[in-house]
Specification:
Layout (H helix, E strand, L loop, with lengths): L12 H21 L9 H14 L6 H8 L8 H16 L8 H12 L15 E4 L2 E5 L6 H14 L4 H15 L6 H16 L8 H7 L1 H14 L3 H27 L2 H9 L7 H8 L4 H14 L3 E3 L12 E3 L8
Antiparallel strand pairs: 1-2, 3-4
Length: about 325
């Protein structure tokens, strides 16, 4: 009888170090929040996760538009992109009820994520597929006839493995991309399922926007996937994802500390800028202020210094057309 399938990878010193650092960061965040979830790991970060994961797949909606769609507001945009947002939010909200090693739940998640977007949502692909960059095929997925068996073996490994969830979730993510079991939606499924696996290890991962870090490193994400294909194992991809998780945790920790340090004045400025960018004079009018030095000293400069707002014309700070807008960092604290 053949031995059960085990995905090929190596536990390197870098992986061990990253796992230890992530565990330490998780502990610090837990200490900040007590036994409950971290205050800033909530709806705003879930929206950031959805926005970034879809942006990786070329969805053009802005973070503000994604927020509006999830709030049930009308948004001008491609119907398919709006549907992607609605589907993704529904999938992330349903995530807590899924078993990571269940094929039934994996297919249900794909059905929810891709409903109305592709034919065969919730079903394995029936045709051969390849991933191309330009005119060059960079990955030829296994034949469609092998997909059910490969997924069955992968889920069985996930169920029985004693590999640390940080590593196991990264291995699963890579293997899912390699198998490419669906006609479309494989990337967002890989990121969703890794979040599911990690959230069952520690609930704070259900709201960790690691997708925003992956989006910033998108070229490296695909480069490392290709390198692992050539190497025949997922070791480099594990290191890449663990480093991305650590970065996301540190950003959340920093944001949480910033949130605790915000003055009432800075909070009011952030709320004023939430709808759209404003000039300094427009900000003052919105805040009912008339004394420019007070505005600059107590509102504008502290918000700029904490990286919560940014100039729309950064290379010309004193431009008469200058306006200010919320930074990505600010959306977790307003």
């Amino acid at each position: 009888m053949p031995a059960p399938y085990s995905p090929p990878f190596t536990i390197t010193p870098a992986i061990l170090s990253l796992v230890a650092e992530i565990a330490g960061e998780v502990g610090r965040l837990g200490a900040i929040s007590g036994q409950g979830s971290v205050p800033k790991l909530r709806r705003e970060n879930r929206i950031k996760s959805i926005h970034a994961s879809l942006a990786i797949e070329n969805n053009t909606l802005t973070l503000e538009q994604v927020t509006a769609v999830i709030a049930g507001k009308r948004v001008l945009g491609k119907p398919s992109e709006i549907q992607e947002v609605k589907n993704a939010f529904a999938a992330y909200e349903a995530m807590a009820g899924w078993n990571p090693s269940s094929q039934k739940d994996l297919l249900a998640a794909h059905r929810l994520l891709m409903a109305g977007l592709v034919d065969g949502a919730g079903c394995f692909r029936t045709r051969s597929v390849g991933i191309a960059q330009g005119e060059r095929v960079v990955h030829l997925a296994p034949p469609a006839a092998r997909v059910p068996g490969l997924i069955k073996d992968l889920l069985a490994w996930l169920k029985r493995t004693d590999t640390h969830p940080l590593v196991a979730s990264s291995v699963f993510h890579y293997e899912l991309e390699f198998i490419h079991p669906f006609a479309d939606g494989n990337g967002r499924m890989g990121r969703l399922w890794q979040t599911l696996i990690l959230s069952q290890w520690n609930p704070l991962f259900a709201f960790l926007p690691v997708e925003t870090v992956i989006r910033e490193r998108q070229a490296d994400y695909y480069r490392v996937l290709g390198a692992c294909d050539n190497a025949g194992n997922s070791t480099a991809f594990i290191e890449f994802l663990l480093d991305s998780l650590l970065t996301a945790l540190r950003e959340v920790s920093a944001t949480d500390q910033v949130g605790d340090q915000l003055t009432d004045q800075v909070k009011s400025l952030l709320k004023a800028l939430k709808a759209n960018p404003l000039s300094a004079l427009e900000c003052m009018a919105r805040l009912k202020l008339s004394h420019r030095p007070t505005f600059r000293a107590n509102y504008l400069h502290p918000a700029l210094g904490q990286g919560l707002i940014e100039r729309t014309i950064p290379d010309k700070p004193n431009s008469r057309l200058q306006k200010y807008r919320l930074s990505a960092k600010a959306y977790a604290v307003v």
